[in-house]
Design brief:
This protein has 11 helices and 15 strands. It is α/β, with parallel strands linked by helices.
């Protein structure tokens, strides 16, 4: 069975591999045939040992990255009664559960949601992990389909996979959106429906942003440290309902450097301190760590199946191109999602 794995965590290099086919799925599992997948920023980090003490505690055998994908059901476990062989599904997988870079794989039911014909394979291939992170971040900020209309929202790191999906969802829900990204991605953000677009290098424009809610998806230059752009400006305002939500947390970096117990304890103290400081200024402050959620995944798939939803896919490549893209750390990142699709003779 063809797969893509990391054999040496110190190098973090993804390579093609031949692995045994997975066994029959357990009671709550589904066996899947992969149709397409993508690369999320956490994958190359984990491949180089980032957060390994927490995410790869077994430490045995090659590491298989991959957080999302689109697949076809091959076989279901005896406890799975709502899916059947032949169905297409979208995937969203925590690093602690496993990876999706395999021709065939078994996943828990909670990582899978069925999709209809209206959602194309390419969109589904890149939707799961980034999409759930975006949906959970919006929820942490108190935003939903019935609570976003008229809210002023700033998305920092708006051109990435998570930011693009959050922008599409918030725009659909009626929020007014300021999108922050590099100049080269401004056309992309305009196509997604941003009301205002700011270059993060323009300090005057950044200081002039007047959003009541900030979502920060932009990674810090040092992945072991947290960076909170725009939080200071938000805390100085006096409007009600202000919130700051970030996926840029020190949790995995602290665990990498200090071990599980000390790393989690130190991160917890940092979080409580920042949350208390923000609360004193009237700001709701939250960190978001990805959670597997089949119901939310199904909701996300339904939203992106609607015909007027902008595409999140900037480029589609063959699955065999995955290792080169994964290993090229110097390549300029494309906006939205780049997906890698397997050939399907039955299509």
């Amino acid at each position: 069975m063809k797969a893509f794995t990391i054999g040496d965590a110190s190098a973090g290099t993804l390579r093609p591999a031949e692995l045994p086919a997975p066994p029959a799925p357990a009671d709550d599992q589904i066996q899947l045939e992969l149709l397409g997948t993508s690369i999320n920023p956490i994958d190359p980090l984990v491949a180089r040992g980032y957060g390994a003490r927490l995410l790869n505690r077994k430490g045995d055998g090659p590491l298989m990255p991959g957080r999302d994908g689109v697949a076809r059901v091959v076989q279901v476990g005896s406890g799975v009664t709502d899916l059947e062989p032949g169905q297409r599904v979208v995937l969203a997988v925590s690093p602690r559960t496993g990876g999706t870079y395999s021709e065939r794989l078994n996943l828990p039911r909670g990582c899978v949601a069925p999709i209809g014909d209206q959602l194309d394979d390419a969109t589904a291939a890149g939707l799961g992990y980034a999409g759930l992170t975006a949906l959970q971040s919006l929820g942490a900020a108190g935003l939903s389909a019935d609570k976003a209309r008229g809210k002023r929202l700033c998305i920092n790191g708006a051109s990435g996979g998570v930011g693009s999906i959050a922008l599409i969802l918030a725009r659909r829900w009626g929020a007014a959106i300021t999108a922050v990204a590099s100049q080269r991605n401004h056309d992309w953000l305009q196509r997604l429906g941003a009301d205002e677009i700011v270059d993060y290098r323009d300090s005057a424009a950044m200081a002039a942003i007047r959003a009541d809610i900030v979502l920060n998806f932009a990674p810090a230059a040092d992945s072991t440290r947290q960076h909170d752009p725009l939080l200071g400006e938000l805390c100085q305002r006096d409007t009600p309902g202000r919130a700051y939500v970030t996926t840029n947390t020190p949790v995995l970096g602290a665990v990498t450097d200090r071990g599980i117990v000390r790393g989690l304890a130190g991160s917890g103290k940092t979080y409580l301190k920042k949350r208390l400081q923000a609360r004193r200024s009237g700001v709701r402050y939250r960190w978001v760590l990805f959670k597997e959620d089949a119901d939310q995944l199904a909701t996300l798939a339904n939203l992106f199946a609607e015909g007027d939803t902008p595409s999140i896919v900037s480029e589609s490549r063959a699955l065999d191109a995955l290792p080169d893209a994964f290993n090229d750390q110097q390549a300029a990142s494309s906006p939205g999602k780049v997906v890698f699709m397997a050939a399907d003779d039955r299509a």
